[in-house]
């Protein structure tokens, strides 16, 4: 199955962005509008992901998000992988926040 992919700079500002990284990665820096469900929890929490909208899935570099997007698509969802992950997000100068009050960064 081919998974649709989009560059980080092209993700719509109002997109449903699903961040599947681990807690420490999320705390260090994430997109302000992102929803955090780690890849290790997605199967048990899939009902939290809307079924009626496109889901943009992001991780650090794109591997985990590709797997999650493929799985969501197999369930009949409309999921798109964010190519290059949060590293590309940061490189594209997209907004980021941290949970620590410190300068956000991609861990």
Automatic annotation (TrEMBL):
Coiled coil: none annotated. CDD domains: RHOD. This is Rhodanese-like domain-containing protein. Residues 11-98 form the Rhodanese domain. InterPro entries: GlpE_sulfurtransferase, Rhodanese-like_dom, Rhodanese-like_dom_sf. Pfam families: Rhodanese.
């Amino acid at each position: 199955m081919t998974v649709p992919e989009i560059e980080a700079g092209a993700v719509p500002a109002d997109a449903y962005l699903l961040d599947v990284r681990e807690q420490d990665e999320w705390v260090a820096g994430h997109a302000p509008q992102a929803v955090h469900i780690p890849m290790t929890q997605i199967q048990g929490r899939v009902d939290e992901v809307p079924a009626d909208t496109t889901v943009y899935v992001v991780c650090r570099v794109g591997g985990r998000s590709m797997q999650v997007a493929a799985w969501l698509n197999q369930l009949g969802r409309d999921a798109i992988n964010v190519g290059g992950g949060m590293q590309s997000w940061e490189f594209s100068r997209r907004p980021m926040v941290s949970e620590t009050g410190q300068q956000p960064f991609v861990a």
